[in-house]
């Protein structure tokens, strides 16, 4: 995607890319630039770092244990906590953490 250097709007292609006279044109101002060669750039975006919304490792201290099957290792016991993350008329969300592999999952 190319943007207009004058008004910062998205530039459109005037003509076909295979024709020698195609150009980028701005739909809001008179900017026009001829396309001289094909160009392809790929930018790999970084993954976002995710904050632990449950409060980190300290949130799992002093929580209860229940029978729940871990979807990762199939272990039969997990720690759990209930948190109200939606409006008050919605049920609480139950978060689990596997006792064996520490995988976390949610049941709403």
From TrEMBL:
Regions crossing the membrane: none
Q: What is its main location?
A: nucleus
Task: Locate the residues binding Zn(2+) 2.
Answer: 70, 73, 98, 101
Q: Where is each TFIIS-type domain found?
A: 66-106
Q: Where in the cell is it found?
A: Nucleus
Signal peptide coordinates? 1-18
Q: Which Gene Ontology terms of cellular component type are present?
A: RNA polymerase III complex
Taxonomically, the superkingdom here is: Eukaryota
> Which residues are Zn(2+) 1-binding?
4, 7, 26, 29
Q: Which GO terms describe its molecular function?
A: DNA-directed RNA polymerase activity; nucleic acid binding; zinc ion binding
**Entry keywords, A to Z:** DNA-directed RNA polymerase, Metal-binding, Nucleus, Signal, Transcription, Zinc, Zinc-finger
The family database entries (Pfam families) matched by this protein are listed as:
Zn_ribbon_TFIIS
Q: Record's family?
A: Belongs to the archaeal rpoM/eukaryotic RPA12/RPB9/RPC11 RNA polymerase family.
Q: What is this protein called?
A: DNA-directed RNA polymerase subunit
Q: Which organism is it from?
A: Triparma strigata
